[in-house]
């Protein structure tokens, strides 16, 4: 009995180790193309189904949340709310309500499954719109409450050394600002856990510059991704984009290669090809919209082929379905 148990227990440990190694491999830049649900939250009480739409396409998936600090009375505590822009009035949801508790069933199912090879299943992209120190610290305190779910790395004395990730079902990303680094990295004690990872800085003064001039930083223990507006590929912007050409695709590939060579995930936002009616009905912005669905589709296809890690669109269903079709071997079974 004891021998049989020992053999089974040992086999389980070996299996877990193999799955854990697979999870680390899957989390590396270039390993997986993830559909990225742009602006995945309600506006003024409308479109509250966005997170349901995003999650319906399966995992892995990225969920973008824009955050504002709401504190109408200085004598009272403030709180972080999910909203697109000012003014905020306090009726907006917070991340506990709108994100964390909504994904709880998926996360708990994932943690019960010994196969973690496709973790993280969800990337939470925090677009922090107001950077009051108390707001940033409130965000960090919330992440601490859910840290059992989160991908983390150990804070060390050497920021340039990229520690191996402890991969959880959720990966949290945040922006490039030094104010965010102060709270999410600098204030974490050595030996503590980094629970969210910042973007590298970009120099976009010359949109036609090569990738290695726009981004010059290697990944660090804290800064692990590169966030790009599509205008670095087509400076004229989505609504005025001309034909998609081999030269444009070569530029896209150069950005992906630059990111991956520096140990960074790379994201591009936002690639839509919706009709005017679809934009109006769904609250999508014309500035992100290509002249046609076909025009957007060509760019989606090459972004997936070229290994863009996070492909952001408001058309969650279409991009998710295309990613699943083009990269089936890399995707978990739902």
Task: Using brief descriptors, characterize the structure shown.
334 residues; alpha/beta; TIM Barrel; 9-stranded mixed beta sheet; two-stranded antiparallel sheet; 10 helices; 37% helix; 15% strand; globular; disordered N terminus
Structural description of this entry:
It is a single chain. This protein is of the alpha/beta class. The chain has one domain (2-330): TIM Barrel. Helix content is 37%, strand content 15%. It contains 10 helices and 11 strands. Strand 2 and strand 3 (79-82) form a beta hairpin. Helix 4 (133-145) crosses helix 5 (178-186) and helix 7 runs parallel beside helix 9. The longest helix is centred in the N-terminal third of the chain and has 25 residues, at 2-26. The chain is globular and about 50 Å long. The two termini are 36 Å apart.
Mean pLDDT: 92
How does the overall form come out from the CA principal axes?
A: globular
> What order do the helices and strands follow?
HEHEEHEHEEHEEHEHEHHEH
Ends: how far apart?
Answer: 36 Å
Stated plainly, the CATH topology is called: TIM Barrel
Number of strands: 11
Whole-angstrom Rg? 20 Å
> Helical content, roughly?
25-40%
> CATH architecture, please?
Alpha-Beta Barrel
The CATH C-level class name = Alpha Beta
Beta percentage is 15-25%
Total domains, how many?
1
| Uncertain spans | 1-20
For the sheet with most strands, the description reads: 9 strands, mixed
Which structural category do the helix and sheet elements fall into?
alpha/beta
Helices, by number, come to 10
């Amino acid at each position: 009995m004891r021998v049989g148990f020992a053999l089974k227990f040992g086999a389980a440990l070996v299996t877990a180790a193999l799955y854990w190694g697979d999870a680390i491999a899957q989390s590396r830049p270039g390993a997986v193309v993830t559909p990225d649900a742009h602006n995945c939250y309600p506006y003024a009480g409308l479109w509250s189904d966005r997170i349901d739409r995003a999650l319906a396409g399966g995992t892995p998936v990225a969920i973008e949340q824009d955050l504002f600090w709401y504190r109408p009375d200085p004598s009272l505590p403030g709180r972080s709310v999910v909203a697109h822009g000012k003014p905020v009035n306090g009726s907006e949801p917070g991340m506990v309500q709108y994100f964390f508790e909504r994904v709880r069933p998926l996360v708990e199912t994932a943690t019960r499954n010994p196969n973690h090879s496709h973790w993280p299943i969800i990337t939470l992209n925090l677009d922090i719109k107001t950077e009051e120190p108390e707001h940033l610290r409130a965000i960090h305190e919330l992440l601490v409450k859910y840290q059992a779910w989160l991908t983390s790395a150990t804070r060390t004395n050497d920021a340039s050394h990229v520690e191996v990730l402890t991969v959880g079902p959720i990966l949290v990303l945040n922006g490039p600002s030094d104010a965010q680094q102060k709270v999410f990295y600098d204030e974490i004690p050595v030996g503590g856990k980094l629970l969210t990872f910042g973007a590298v800085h970009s120099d976009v003064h010359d949109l036609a510059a090569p990738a290695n001039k726009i981004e010059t930083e290697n990944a660090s223990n804290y800064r692990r991704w590169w966030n790009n507006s599509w205008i670095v590929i087509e400076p004229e912007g989505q609504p005025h984009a001309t034909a998609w050409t081999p030269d444009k695709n070569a530029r896209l590939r150069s950005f992906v290669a630059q990111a991956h060579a520096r140990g960074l995930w790379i994201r591009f936002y936002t690639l839509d090809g919706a009709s005017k009616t679809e934009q109006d009905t769904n609250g999508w912005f014309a500035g992100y919209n290509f002249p046609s669905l076909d025009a957007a589709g060509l760019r989606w296809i090459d972004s997936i082929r070229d290994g863009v890690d996070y492909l952001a669109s408001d058309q969650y269903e279409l991009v998710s379905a295309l990613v699943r079709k083009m990269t089936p071997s890399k995707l978990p079974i739902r």
